[in-house]
Design goal:
By secondary structure, this protein is α/β, with parallel strands linked by helices. The protein has a single domain, classed as Peptidoglycan recognition protein-like (Lysozyme-like, 3-Layer(aba) Sandwich), CATH 3.40.80. The protein has 7 helices and 7 strands. Helix 6 packs across helix 7. The longest helix is centred in the first third of the chain and has 19 residues. About 19% of the residues have low confidence. The structure holds zinc ion.
Length: 264
């Protein structure tokens, strides 16, 4: 039995190496292991334990698994993929977190960008998804499509409320196209919540996902809470984004509460 298991593992490894040869995107350096504060289980969130990734041309399941630090077999299981070759371009696959609480494990990071801020946006539309915004941004001539790094869905456009979608920009660790003011595109992670928060309120599912995502990114890149801003709060920005109903104070309060809990 053990021998059979070893053989299967060996076969998977061989396959993985073969697949690695097909990767066409730029190689990125693995992120050094970062010691994170111990997180009390009581602060575990029942919300997103993963993110969504849209498959692009040239990406293999192996490459995706390597970039997110999630086992290929785990990806296959979560997405009911029987053979890695079944992967289809533009398919949206779920990347489960490797931890119990963290929404995403961005294991690879560019040496060129040091993330120092997180800027939060709203889409100012009732409906949308990473895919629909990507189309919009491409038609407006945005270089490399979707300007944000993450999109938090509201349940429209075949998404689930609270889903976190990862954009190509994050996958390849590229500068954003979401906030020109104060040179933020070069140093800020851009997160967009679907909705118009001048007219409606952020739903609990979206808020919980936002807290989980921001808290995780903040710990990973050592970003202070005062560097987490709504788009309109960036000096020089002339916008109402992310809307007058966006709960900035509540977000900061929740992040502070967690920081305090981690320190205890
Ligand atoms: Zn904005």
């Amino acid at each position: 039995m053990a021998k059979k298991f070893l053989l299967i593992n060996f076969a998977i490894l061989c396959f993985a190496f073969l697949q690695a040869g097909c990767v066409t995107y730029q190689s990125v350096e693995p992120l050094p292991v970062i010691a994170r504060p111990a997180i009390p289980p009581s602060y575990a969130l029942p919300v997103p334990v993963g993110v969504y990734h849209q498959v692009e041309s040239g990406q293999t399941l192996w490459a995706i698994s390597r970039n997110y630090g999630v086992d290929v077999t785990k990806l296959m299981k979560y997405n009911s993929i029987r053979k890695p070759q079944e992967l289809v371009v533009r398919e949206r696959i779920f990347i489960p977190s490797s931890g119990s609480r963290l929404p995403v494990e961005p294991l690879y990071v560019s040496r060129a960008i040091r993330w120092r801020y997180i800027i939060i946006h709203h889409s100012a539309t009732d409906v949308g998804s990473a895919e629909s915004f990507e189309k919009g941004h491409l038609s407006r001539g945005f270089y490399r499509g979707l300007g944000y790094h993450f999109v938090i869905d509201n349940g429209s456009k075949a998404t689930k409320a609270g889903d976190i979608e990862v954009s190509r920009r994050w996958f390849y660790q590229m500068a954003g196209a979401h906030c020109n003011a104060a040179g933020m595109n070069e140093k800020a992670i851009g997160i967009c919540l679907v909705g118009n928060f001048d007219e409606e309120r952020v739903t609990k599912k979206q808020f919980d996902s936002l807290v989980a995502l921001v808290d995780h990114l903040r710990l990973l890149y050592n970003i202070p809470i005062y560097n987490i801003k709504g788009h309109k709060d960036v000096s020089g920005a002339t916008t109402r984004c992310p809307g007058s109903n966006f709960p900035s104070a509540k977000l900061k309060k929740e992040l502070s509460r967690r920081e305090f809990a981690y320190r205890k």
